[in-house]
Design brief:
202 residues; mainly alpha; Rna Polymerase Sigma Factor, Chain: A; Arc Repressor Mutant, subunit A
Length: 202
């Protein structure tokens, strides 16, 4: 994919060029939104909103990492949804277990043909990780998802969230520390290599 040519075409109004850019980044964008919001439907909405914003803002794009530019749109859409959720909290409509606990799909931990026991463990681990991510302040969650889940480097994250490198590194260190502390409460769900003396190590 010649990203530069596609961007130039999209800026000239070529919808096919923009659609090819969307296809290239939609999975990355959705995964970020899902980890930020913890909800499949909200993540889809935020991703769609972000790409609409990106399309409208194409004339303002002045080079640099297009990936970081797109993910900034996704991050902003997620922040908008998180603020809306704080103003208007809702009751989740996800199916519940017999213990009235909300069930979630283990999207990113799924593998081919797990046993029923493995499936249950992965669902529980997914729930624990998402719970701990949700406990983080929004700005910490953004950085740890971008670096540790999406694999962006510090400069890309700095460009995405519009903060200096020092701030990114500081937030990441504090986010990891908080996650480590939170996940110690779920150490029995973690793979053996992440346990040490009954405590999780990350």
């Amino acid at each position: 994919m010649d990203e530069t040519a596609l961007i130039a075409g999209a800026q000239r109004g070529d919808l096919d060029s923009f659609n090819r850019l969307v296809l290239a980044y939609q999975d990355l964008a959705f995964n970020l939104a899902y980890r930020m919001l913890g909800d499949d439907a909200l993540a889809q909405d935020a991703t769609q909103t972000a790409f609409l914003s990106a399309y409208r803002s194409l004339p303002t794009y002045r080079g640099g990492s297009f990936k970081a530019w797109v993910l900034r749109m996704v991050t902003n859409a997620c922040y908008d949804e998180l603020r809306r959720r704080q103003r208007h909290p809702t009751t989740p409509l996800e199916p519940e277990t017999d213990e009235e606990e909300e069930m979630e799909s283990p999207r990113w931990l799924a593998s081919d043909g797990p046993s029923p026991e493995e499936s249950v463990e992965r669902v529980e681990l997914e729930r624990a990780i998402q719970h701990c991510l949700n406990e983080l302040p929004d700005e910490f969650r953004t950085v740890v998802v971008l670096v540790d889940v999406q694999g962006l480097d510090y400069e890309e994250v700095s460009s995405t969230v519009g903060k200096p490198l020092g701030t990114i590194k500081s937030r990441l260190a504090r986010a990891r520390q908080k996650l480590r502390g939170c996940l110690q409460g779920f150490w029995e769900l973690l793979p053996a290599q992440f346990r040490l003396g009954g405590e999780a190590i990350l």
